[in-house]
Design brief:
about 180 residues, alpha+beta, Aminopeptidase, 4 helices, globular, binds coenzyme A
């Protein structure tokens, strides 16, 4: 089971948060979370048309919890899921040449931006990735996503390349930067 030990965290504005693994019983909160952020940002792969369903959500959470090298971590204010970060295998599957390499994705709800939660979740993710035996972490970040680029570089990620014209959103092409960090 890839569940983390729950931990308390206080946002810069004093709001108390619990950081813990997302459980199957959180499925409705997780859907609510996705339905909120899909309208707040163009910097994930969720579009306003994304329509998460109960069964696939439960299945995804259960599969992640059962996977020894994957993790799905949430930040909860009272019962509300306000941020999440997920650790996955680099290729999304086992491969003998990529056992050392993780990838991750994260989102914080707009009402909770700039309160220190992003950096906190990166720390929790990095600690957990180390514990799982990963040595390097990869991710992509859209070139126009200045807040995230600022946060990742502050956290020690380097930009290693550009995937050109990876997305076409609202009439314009977007590039993604590739980011990378050694964690051992
Ligand atoms: C990017 C994101 C995760 C940042 O989360 P957050 O909780 O606001 O981040 P933090 O409060 O921990 O900020 C950490 C640092 O990042 C930088 N940063 C964050 N937001 C910023 C902004 N709007 N402008 C400039 N720098 C910013 C700052 O250096 C900040 O440190 P500081 O507040 O002490 O100056 C959040 O904005 C988000 O979820 N955005 C939408 C989805 C997304 O972009 N996900 C990442 C996809 S790759």
């Amino acid at each position: 089971m890839s569940a983390i030990r729950p931990e308390k965290f206080t946002l810069k504005n004093g709001v108390p948060v619990i950081i813990r693994s997302v459980e199957v019983s959180d499925w409705a909160e997780q859907i609510q979370f996705r339905n909120t952020f899909k309208n707040e940002t163009i910097f994930t792969w969720h579009t306003p048309a994304t329509n998460p369903q109960e069964e696939e959500t439960k299945k995804f959470i259960a599969a992640t919890l059962a996977a020894p090298k994957e993790c799905f971590i949430g930040a909860f204010h009272e019962k509300k899921l306000i941020a999440q970060i997920g650790i996955h295998k680099l290729l999304g599957r086992d491969h003998p040449w990529t056992e050392h390499a993780a990838r991750f994705g994260m989102t914080v709800l707009k009402d909770y931006w700039r309160q220190g939660l992003g950096i906190k979740l990166l720390n929790v993710m990095q600690e957990e990735a180390r514990r799982m035996g990963y040595q390097v972490i990869h991710a992509e970040v859209r070139e126009a996503n200045k807040p995230a680029i600022e946060m990742y570089t502050k956290f020690g990620f380097e930009i290693t390349g550009t995937q050109k014209k990876v997305a076409f959103i609202n009439g314009r092409y977007h590039n993604d930067f590739l980011i990378f960090k050694e964690i051992n």
